[in-house]
Amino acid sequence: MSSVRPHRPFSVLALLLVLAGCARNPVTGDREFVMMSEAQEIAMGRESDVEIRRQMGLYEDDTLQQYVEEIGLEMAARSHRPELPWSFAIVDSPAVNAFAVPGGFIYLTRGIMAYLGDEADLAGVIGHEIGHVTARHTVQAYTRASGAQLGLLVGSIFSPVARAAGGLAESGLGVLFLRYGRDAELQADRLGAEYAANAGWDPTGVQDMLSTLSRISEGSDRRGVPGWLATHPEAGDRVERVGPTLSELSTQLDLAALRVNRQGYLDRLDGMVYGDNPDQGVVRGRDFLHPELRFALRFPEGWEVLNTETQVVAQRPGEDVYVLLQLVTDPNTRDLEALAVDSMRSGGYRQDSGGETTVNGLDAFIGTFTAARDNDVQPRARVAYIDYQRSVYVLGGLADVRAYDEVEPAFNETIRSFRSLSAAEAEEIRPNRIRFYTVADGDTWQSIAQDAGQGIVASNTLAIMNGFPVNEQPRAGDRVKVVVEG
Ligand SMILES: [Zn+2]
């Protein structure tokens, strides 16, 4: 979770709903009903761009930013809409994703950068996103979007139980994770290959990056990588579907002569932060530590922990049992009970019990709340509102009433683990980074993950990050990415 970026919904959407018009699609040339002119599209893009940069933050590496920007601009200049105010940036998120907003504003996460193997893969991802903009998929998705769809990010991660948490599980960034539909994805893949080839990169990078991203669902540990999977289903099938476009391009161009630049790409990745950036809080085993906000807490043993922009979520594996942590910056009251009862009520919960207390010396309200039954699900929450520094931390356990009693002790233990972090402890927390290792005879992904990789990421993840299927071992002499501390 981020420390200094409060979120609010995009207000421009309401405005758009009253504007309507007809325009020619820049890619197909067909006339189509769209809700905005190009000037409106650009204005909306600019507004979203400010919001995205403020909420997600850009990854601090000017050389890497400039590298992506240059490749993007070269490709955009040869696209169907060269006149847009194109911009390309890497956002400081560990999720594996890339996204575009109308008007030509395109973002890659540093998480996806770690999974790409060369410049052709990068051109493939960028080209795909350019395609969403030139074919006006982004415009169509924005105009379709309703309040419910804007909460898509949450919807894709959470089961109905967590969704029913209402106020607890709200995110302002859902608008970034719009779905385009299968035909739009296939079209963006084709356009991506075309734009890459026209600008001089090997378009088979589109296929390679789709192969890699489709493997993430197969075998890697999923922590921190919901993005692409949530918005880009069926990547595996798309690998084949882009084939005819590549064959067609190969009749016009000598693909083998086009740029791949593996070495140059990997050199630029050396030292890049992998996983959580400490200023957004880090997950270390069961612990969640936030050196900047100076707090720590411990989740139950074996639970999966996901640190997103707006909240931290822990899930008991395979079950609809969660602990969520959110931050209320500048609350309008310091009356913790009133704040708790009020916000839980707006999420559809009524109070069963609760009272003022302290958690490791910090003022707190802890209570139990139950929501109305919805179909077969009735969520019950054990929630703490903790006053710490200038904020109120909302830490809640959530389960269906039938499972609740059994899991309540784990909720209480997690709530009671919330504590302040000393300056010395905060100082000790360093990010993990991408480095390189040359494969020796007899090495396997398992041995590399354990030794060179310090056991930080699983062997399957390492294989996928390096462009291999999980059942295929690296060859001696290969230069492979590893993740190390510091
Ligand atoms: Zn897409």
Task: Give a description of the structure.
The N terminus is likely disordered. Helices cover 40% and strands 22% of the residues. It is an alpha+beta fold and 486 residues long. The protein is built from 20 helices and 19 strands. The strands form five sheets. It has a seven-stranded antiparallel β-sheet. A four-stranded antiparallel β-sheet has the order 7-8-9-17. The chain is globular and about 75 Å long. The longest helix is centred in the N-terminal third of the chain and has 19 residues. The protein has three domains: 263 residues, no CATH class; 148 residues, Protein Transport Mog1p, Chain A (3-Layer(aba) Sandwich), CATH 3.40.1000; 56 residues, Roll (Membrane-bound Lytic Murein Transglycosylase D, Chain A), CATH 3.10.350. The site of zinc ion has 6 residues, from α5 and α10.
Quick structural summary:
Helices cover 40% and strands 22% of the residues.
List the keywords.
single chain, Protein Transport Mog1p, Chain A, four-stranded antiparallel β-sheet, Membrane-bound Lytic Murein Transglycosylase D, Chain A, 486 residues, seven-stranded antiparallel β-sheet, 40% helix, 20 helices, disordered N terminus, binds zinc ion, alpha+beta
List the helices and strands and how they pair.
Blueprint: H1 12-16, E1 21-24, E2 31-34, H2 38-56, H3 62-77, E3 87-91, E4 98-101, E5 105-109, H4 110-115, H5 119-134, H6 137-144, H7 147-150, H8 152-157, H9 160-163, H10 182-198, H11 204-219, H12 227-231, H13 235-241, H14 243-252, H15 262-269, E6 273-274, E7 282-284, E8 287-290, E9 295-298, E10 304-307, E11 312-315, E12 322-329, H16 336-346, E13 349-359, E14 362-371, E15 379-388, E16 391-400, H17 401-416, E17 419-420, H18 423-428, E18 432-438, H19 445-450, H20 459-465, E19 479-485
Parallel strand pairs: 3-5
Antiparallel strand pairs: 1-2, 4-5, 6-18, 7-8, 8-9, 9-17, 10-11, 11-12, 12-16, 13-14, 14-15, 15-16, 18-19
The protein binds zinc ion.
